Each structure stands twice: as structure tokens, then as C-alpha cells.
Amino acid sequence: MFRRMSRLLVSFVMIMAGAVIGVGATSGTAHADECYTWSRTLSEGSSGGDVTQLQIRVAGWVTSGERLSYDGQFGARTTAAVKKFQAAYGLTADGVAGPLTFSKIYALQDADCTPVHFTYAELNRCNSDWSGGAVSAATAKANALKTMWKLEAMRHALGDVSVTVSSGFRSYACNNAVGGSSTSRHLYGDAADLTGSPTLCRLAQQARTHGFSEILGPGYPGHNDHTHVALDPSPYWSAPTCGI
Description:
Layout: H1 2-21, H2 49-58, H3 76-88, H4 99-108, H5 120-123, H6 137-157, E1 164-167, H7 172-177, E2 192-195, H8 200-207, E3 214-216, E4 227-230, E5 236-238
Parallel strand pairs: 3-5
Antiparallel strand pairs: 1-2, 2-4, 3-4
Helix pairs in contact: 1-4
């Protein structure tokens, strides 16, 4: 908690400093960050690993049914996602990622790059090393990080309510133990089962605008007690009780 408050304070100071000296959204880096520091302003036409890092953090700010690619290319879709991120957090929605945008991201992430309201532990109750799934341990963990940033966007859009993850990554052994599908996205690390409040239907409905291509909820067999979200290459939504 102290670390998060310190990070918020630093971001606030940098924002105020920018306002005083006239540093705008097209200036350079805002401040050093424990997780990742952007060293340049990014806008449409930019490319590189720093764009990919930005895409990971704004991929939850898309339109219904849309998925943002993590391709390192700052195109029209990335611009639109950045604008929605900026608007959601009270920034000028110009689609240009500069110090003010980066300062907000810094305030939203912990030193391990996870968003402040989610942890790797929440996304993996199976084992300690992310091994034994359908992809490498490194890929499963990277997929979980992308999922957490989408959940962070969803949480904020819902009014900063708590979102409870009951299940995330599973190895084949863990998946078999709970009777999971042999093709479950949990095996890839990009799935999360959500429970608690808001209602399961509200979670399923909201998930449509945060980059999840797979949404299963009440009314779908075996999903009356949770809402399942994931990134499936073959998009599929089904939560009949919720009108999905």
C-alpha cells in the first residue's frame, strides 16, 4: 500500500510539474519506473517494443467485440484505445501517449508490471512456475499479464469496483482436477473466471468492450456460478441468461 501511494504521489508531482513548465503530451519520458519506462512520445505511425508495452496496457479500452493486436505498430486502433484510456482517466483524449499518459500508467502498475488491483498469484492458483500448460511457462505468464490489464480496464469502467478472479492459469494436471475442458483457454494463461460482485451478468456484459474474445457466463453449461473471460483466436460469446 505504501509503495502504491508513493507511486501515485510521484505521478501527481510529475503531472503538476508538466503543467507548470508547459510540458505537454508530446514531450519525452515522465519519470523512471520500476517496471518499464517509456523514453519517447508515441503516436500514430510509431513502432517498436515500447509501442507493444503501451498496447498491453491499453488493450482493455476497445469497442465491443474488438481486439487490439500486440504488434508494436501504433495504428488507428491503438490511437483509439489510447484515446479511450485517456478519457477514462480524465486526460486530454488526443491519442498521443506522452508524459501525462505514461504517468497515469505508472500509477496503475506495480514493480512487476501487473496492474495495481491484480496480482500474478490471483491469476495462478495452480503452481508456482506457470509450467505444464499448453504453452511455455513464459508465454502463459505473459498472457496472464495481458488479461490482468484488460481486467483493470473493466474494473475501472465498472466504477472501480473489486473484481474477483476465482481461477486463472491451469496446467493440464490442474485443469483435469477441476474437470476443465481439454481445450480450455486456462491452459494458455489468458483466461480468468470471475465471481462475486458485480453480478455475473454485469461482468459478462461489460467484458464485451474490454478486448475479451471469449465470454462464457450464466446460461452456458457449467457457467452459472461464474463468468469466464479469455482471449480465444476463435471468438465465442455465450451467456444466454444475460442476453449474450
